[in-house]
């Protein structure tokens, strides 16, 4: 299957100024984008919560593809409320483990600070790598929670739920990508030679030397 080629598929009069000069990056230039409404068969392979989602696939000029989902469970942003929840949980576990903790053992709150040290309030989204590290921390303190404290138990469940959203979205994208139909690109023009010698062209027809893909089909 032929792939996109900047010289062939980008507006020719802008090619030198945009592509050859490096002004624009072909990996950032979308050529075609498709939006898919999900049908029952698609939804059957997805986690819960994506019933009203839309799948979007874009192909760029460098032949790279990008996919995303609009709708469904959304990635959680590290807001001030989330930050407070995490610090309250860490403080709760610090107190619960104070007597049993060894002198050289790191306190849970310090471990949490290592996890979120580069996170910016209202700017950082809890994405794959961040979610994994936070989930590991939450799992590590699970047995130190006060089982009779419903407030902390609910807080832990809520925070743990935030870390699972990236996994759900990744699983949904993987399932939808596997069901992508095959699309064939037909260009709507042909490059032709600036001049055509009919006798030589006829001879090449007889000798089956035509270059259909590039020139002679148009001729």
- Total beta strand runs: 3
| Helix/strand structural class | mainly alpha
Measured between the Cα atoms of the first and last residue, the distance is: 23 Å
Strand content: 5-15%
Name the average pLDDT: 89
Helix content: 40-55%
Poorly predicted runs: none
Shape: elongated
Q: Compute the number of structural domains.
A: 2
Strand neighbour order, sheet with most strands = 1-2-3
User: How would you sum up the major sheet?
Assistant: 3 strands, antiparallel
H-E string: HHEHEEHHHHHH
Question: Helix count?
Answer: 9
Tell me the radius of gyration: 28 Å
Question: How would you sum up this structure, described in words?
Answer:
The chain is mainly α. The protein has two domains: 6-73 and 179-216, no CATH class; 80-168. 46% of the residues lie in helices and 10% in strands. It has nine helices and three strands. A three-stranded antiparallel β-sheet has the order 1-2-3, covered by helices on one side. A hairpin with a 4-residue loop joins strand 2 and strand 3 (65-70). Helix 4 packs across helix 7. The protein is elongated, with a radius of gyration of 28 Å. The two termini are 23 Å apart. The relative contact order is 0.12.
């Amino acid at each position: 299957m032929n792939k996109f080629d900047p010289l062939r598929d980008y507006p020719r009069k802008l090619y030198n100024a945009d592509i050859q000069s490096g002004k624009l990056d072909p990996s950032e230039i979308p050529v075609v984008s498709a939006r898919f409404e999900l049908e029952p068969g698609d939804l059957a392979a997805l986690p819960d919560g994506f019933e009203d989602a839309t799948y979007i696939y874009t192909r760029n000029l460098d032949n790279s593809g990008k996919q995303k989902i609009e709708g469904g469970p959304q990635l959680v942003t590290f807001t001030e409320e989330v930050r407070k929840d995490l610090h309250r949980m860490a403080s709760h576990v610090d107190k619960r483990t104070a007597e049993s903790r060894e002198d050289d053992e790191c306190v849970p709150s310090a471990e949490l600070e290592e996890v979120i040290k580069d996170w910016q309030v209202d700017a950082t989204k809890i994405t794959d790598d961040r979610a994994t590290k936070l989930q590991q921390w939450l799992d590590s303190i699970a047995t130190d929670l006060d089982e009779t404290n419903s407030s902390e138990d609910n807080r832990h469940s809520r925070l743990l739920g935030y870390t699972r959203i990236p996994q759900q979205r990744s699983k949904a994208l993987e399932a939808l990508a596997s069901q992508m139909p095959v699309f064939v690109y037909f260009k709507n023009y042909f490059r032709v030679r600036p001049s055509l010698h009919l006798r030589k062209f006829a001879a090449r027809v007889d000798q089956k030397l035509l270059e259909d893909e590039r020139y002679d089909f148009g001729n």
